Each structure stands twice: as C-alpha cells, then as structure tokens.
Amino acid sequence: MKRILIALILLTSGLSQAYSQDYALTGIVPDSQYYCLGATVNLRVLLSDSGMTGIAPGSLNINWTVSNGISETASVPGSAIGVGGNDTLRLDTFVLTRPGAYFVEVWLDSADTATHNDTIRTMIFVSFNGLYTINPALPAGGNNYQTIAGAADSLSMGGVCGPVIFEIADGSYNEQAMINRVHGVSETNTIVFRSQSQDSSAVTISYTPTGMTDNYTFGVNATSYLTLEHLTLVSTGGVNYGRVLYIDSTCAYNHYHHLQIIGDPTTTNSNMLALIYSNPGLETNDSISVFEYLTLENGAYGMYLYGASSIMTEDSITIRYNKFNNQYVAAMFMYNQSNTLIDSNVVITNAVTNNFSGIYLRYCKDSILIQNNSIYVDGGAGDLIYLREVKGSAAKPVILANNLIIQDNNTSTLRAIYPYNCEYVDIIYNTVRVKSGSLTAGRSIYINSSTSGTYGNIRILNNIFENLGGGYAIEISSNAVTQNYITQLDYNDYISNGSYLGRYNNGYQADFAAWQAATLGAGFDNGSVSIDPIFAGANDVHFTNAALNGLGTPYTFIGFDIENDPRNPTNPDMGADEYELLTNDIATLEIIAPVSSCGLSSAEQISARFFNNGSS
Q: Considering the entire predicted model, what is its pTM?
C-alpha cells in the first residue's frame, strides 16, 4: 500500500510539472488563405496559457519567418494574459509582390517546459492577375518566369484572382509543364498560355517521356477556363510513350486552338501514344471544351477522349477545323460522350494498317452531330467511321452528314461507315469512295446489330456509296433485317465494280435491280439509283454527272453541304456536295490520242471523250 501511494504522488507531481509554464500557439491568421497580388497580409497568432500559470507582459520571445525572406522577432505579450486565458497577437503586416505559395512559420523561444505546441505553420497563396511573360533571356522576378514549368507550378499553387495571360517568348523549350488544380478560375478569371508572337511555329515545347508517370509534354489537371493557343507541343524519342497533351480530372470550358501537336510515327496500338489523352476515371469528365484549328501529326491516336461512364459522360465537346495526319489507329477515338460536335475536320493517313478509324464513337448519346469531315485513307482499312452503342432520340437523332470518305491500297476487311447497335442515327448526304478492300468483306457501308436490345431507328438517305475495290456498295446483315434495325433506306446512289452490288440478309445481289427486288418487302430504296457520279478527280467530292442532279429528298436538320453551300430545299443532291447544274458544262473524261508525247509530228490529230454535263 505504501508503494502504491508513493507512485501516485510521483505521477501527480510529474503531471503537474508537465503542464506548468505551457505557453501555446493555438491559432494563426491567415490560415491557408488566398490573397490577390498586391493585397496586404496581416499576420496574427493566438497565444494561450495552457499551463494555468498566466503570462506576464514581454516574458516571451516570438519569432516568425516567411519564405520570401521576411524574418522577425518580438517580445510578447503586450499585456498580461490571465490564468488559462489567451490573446491575439498582431505580429506583422506585409505585401507579397510575386504570385505563388509562401510558407509561414511562427514559434516561441522561451523557457517553456512543453514545447510541442510552441510552433505553428501555415501557407499563404498569392494569386495571379494580369499579363506575365515566360522568357529565359530575362531575369526571373516581377512578371517574368524563365521556364514554362516554373510559371505553371506557381500558377497551380497561387491560383488566380482575375484574368491571366502568359506570353511565351519565341524559341524552343525542352521541358514539360503541368497546370494543376488552379484556384479561383471562373468565366471572368480565365487563364491563357500562348506564344508572344501568336504564331504556333514560333514556340516549340518538347519533352521525351520515360514512363507512365511522366508521359506528357503539357498537362492540365482539374483546371477549367483555360486556353492554350498558338503553340507547338512535341513528344519525341519515346518508343512506348508519346502523349503530348494530357487532360485529367474534371476540366471544363477549356479552349485548345491553333496548336501543332506532334508525336513520333508509330505502328503500335497503344493509348500511351495518343497525342491528346483524356484520362478515363470517375473524376475525369472534361466537358464543354473546344478543340479547333489543331494540326495533329503522327502518334497512335490523334485524340483519345474517355468519359467516366455511359451515365457520367464527358459533355458538349466540340472538335472542329482540325487536321489529323498519319495516325496509326484512330484520328478521333471517343468513349462515353454526350452532345458532341465533330465538324469540318480533315483526316489523312498513309499508315499501313487493317484497323484504322477516322472517327470512332462508343457509348455516346444525345445530340451528336458529325458533319463536313473528310477522311482520306491510303494504305489502310478498318472501320473508317464507326458508331457503336451510340444513341440519339426521335426529337434529336445522332446525325452523320456531309462527310467524305476516300480509301485505297488495302485489300483487308473494310467498313467505311459502320453503325453497330445504335439508336436513332441519321446517315445523310455522305459520299463514300472505296477503291480497294476485300472482295467479300469490303463495304462502303455496313449495317449490323446484335439480336438483343432496343437498337434501331436508323435512317440512311441521300448518300453516294461507291465501291470500286471489288466489294459491296452496301451490306445489311441478317441480324439487322431480323431486328428491323433500319427505319428508312432511300434516295441513295450505289455503285460497285465487283461481282455484287450489295449483300442483303445473307443474299448476294448482283446489280441494282436485284437489290431493289430483295429490299422491296422492307420498303427500301424505291427512290435510290445506281448512276456513275463521274467524280471530278481521284480524291474529289464533286460529281459531274448531271443525271444525278436533284435526286435526293429534303432533310430538315441539314441545310448546307460540305462546302457550306445551301442545299436545294425541295430537290437536294445525293452525297456531300450540292451539285450546281449549269446550262453549258462540258466535262473532259479522257484523252484517247495521242497517248504519249514521244514521236509526234508537227500535225497530230487529237481525240478525246467528253460528257455534256449541262442542261442544254
């Protein structure tokens, strides 16, 4: 019993000693606050008597530092703090003149038996507002940064409190940059990164990635209201990694325009080599953003945009007026999108591959418009425009209109247009010119669906489907027939130089008469024709055969053609181009003789074949 009593006395004495002279810093202002550039910072702390002894005036030394170089000491408190009391100490007032993040530390330097609560720390964030430069030839400081990464890091830490523009001096920059979770952005407080000369070729930002974690040249993470313009972004030297513009987490209202985005040529199917990559995941919906006037060179994918799910989609993405050159797998590859506009893009590839897509959409829905795009594939095959599980509605169908597709020099499986398991899709005013492909699996358009689901309401009107590669102008699978997948198929022009014009419900139809007979029961193609368009050139959208003039049917939602010429409101033309019938119009089809310039005399007879394409 005596031992226990002694132990209790010692323990009580120890506790009393531990809490004597305990002076604590229990609060600091500002506490992780953002300040606009030029604002005054008032540094205050809360000093508390935690040891129940009181604090006499001037009995403690307090120190503070700020990471910009401020370092001060003072004797506190100014007046006595009673037993168990506290007081707010006003330590300093200062202005931070450069945006970014600043570390603040305050500590007591006194005879204090409990030191665990004598130090307190916080961060101060000073936000950007106005015009800044990135110029390695000028000193760092004021409104100038010497690296793009340095500017991006400071922006990510400091945030914005007004509209901000970074102008990058002409030159080449071998670095990578990430704009990350910028605070304070809004419709008013926008961010712009651009070349100072506003010439995309004048500023080149290059980086060679080494793995998955650094696989980007320029990154945007969880930041909205951002514009990247007039820059060249390059990923170079990476065989397995080659993403250029990396977009992650939720980003909205961003504008990417007049950019040259360049990767290395590849023969690898990997999204690690996507030039523009939007990371899939639950928090990665990059919505209401515009990609326009871009030139995308090489890579496996031009754009790889992937929403979180078919329910949580990326919404209202606009892709227009872009040039896609020599991607290996796909120019535009998109999952889980809604209300998408893909307009007036040009896709050109010489990649030798059997699985190329100019436009690939899957699990997309609502108001989708794919119009006025030109896809030239020389050496490749595949599904050139592929829509899979794409869903519109009766009021707002998905519209595929005024597109030109030209394919050559690959004899593998080809489906130039392929809507699979879709709902409410209108395929209108397209011109498809297939010049090669498999004799038995080459199609200008292929219609197919599974035997289950609610797929259907597909309308195919006013198109030119030409296959001069020996395959079919059109194929409609038995599943599509059984499921009544197609609602309307009419006013199309079908041309094939193969043994069969098309294939319907597993039956081969040798010519147009056979095709009409086979589809008569479904009520299809009563107004369709099989007329040689006589195109104006090898890769031309313009047909010259006046016999095709005005054979289409009006379509409410599309009033202009691929060249923005108005459609005839009562008798529009088939195909992507609205034909203008002239009174006098002679087309030269071929020169028959002479066949060579060798051995010609001073007087030669010239013979040629002409076509009266006029109305007189």
A: 0.89
